[in-house]
Amino acid sequence: MATDGFYLTSDPLGAKCDKKETTNMAIGRTLRPIVTGSSVLGITFSDGVMLAADTLGSYGSLARYRDLSRLLKVNDTTVAAGSGDYADFQYIARLFESLNIESDSYCDGHSYTPRSFYSWLTRVMYNRRTKINPLWNTVIMGGYHDNKPFLGVVNSLGVSFEAPTLATGFGGYIAQPLMRDAYEKNPSMSKEEAQKLLEKCMTVLYYRDARSWNKYEIATITTDGVTITGPMKLEGNWEVANYVRGYD
């Protein structure tokens, strides 16, 4: 199908078409996400940053892929967590890999900081948006550098901001208020308290978000580097469904 000189396709890389085969099919465009991930959460604590995401890849409303990791170790100080189209998130992962290879090739002993990766990603997302070929993701970047935590988010339009607690997708409506309230009461929470809070939020999302899953991973970034643990499993208790009207 072609319209206004654009070839409408589900190719996340926006591959160009062969002009010899078609006269009006010039550029590929992703019309909508196919396999998607739901919420990702991020919070800063006294000695670092912690991110969490479940392992489900939904094909529409079908819980199709149940072991997809959406936490990406970018380098020893930075982690990216993405919701939205999983193929586009894989493409972003390859971009990060290329950026690291280029940086290492200079052999100058320096590497990109979490804020550097974040700033670079905002430009990538905005550039794709201006070409009307966005990457269908919202990405949380978390890191720890120079004894300072960093947490920022950028969406498919290139809109970005930083905050001590962040959540994407449905988590922005359900988990974010819980994290914000806990952080305001205890801004210097410990690593254990932060992990317990994220586990609570992931449990609530499992109950409330139809696109969530009870297996999840947690990434912790401190002065010791990046540690990704999991997948861990939530023990749900669906007896609470008896309190919902119409449930039998």
Structure described in brief:
This is Proteasome subunit beta. The protein is of the alpha+beta class. It has helices at residues 86-105, 114-130, 171-185, 191-208, and strands at residues 2-3, 6-9, 27-30, 35-37, 40-45, 48-54, 57-59, 62-65, 71-75, 78-85, 137-145, 148-154, 160-162, 165-167, 215-222, 225-233.
Sum up the structure in keywords.
five-stranded antiparallel β-sheet, 34% strand, Proteasome subunit beta, 248 residues, eight-stranded antiparallel β-sheet, proteasome, 2 domains, single chain, cytoplasm, alpha+beta, disordered N terminus, 28% helix
CATH class of the largest domain: Alpha Beta
Q: Tell me the CATH topology of the largest domain.
A: Glutamine Phosphoribosylpyrophosphate, subunit 1, domain 1
| CATH architecture annotation of the largest domain | 4-Layer Sandwich
Query: What's the overall average pLDDT, rounded?
Result: 87
Rg, please? 19 Å
> What is the CATH superfamily of the largest domain?
Aminohydrolase, N-terminal nucleophile (Ntn) domain
Number of structurally distinct domains: 2
Biggest sheet record = 8 strands, antiparallel
Let me know the number of strands: 16
Helix/strand order: EEEEEEEEEEHHEEEEHHEE
Q: Report how far apart the termini are.
A: 46 Å
Principal-axis shape equals: globular
Strand content: 25-35%
Number of helices, where a helix is a run of at least 4 consecutive DSSP H or I residues:
4
Helicity level: 25-40%
User: Structural class, from helix and strand content?
Assistant: alpha+beta
- Unreliable segments of 5+ consecutive residues: 1-23
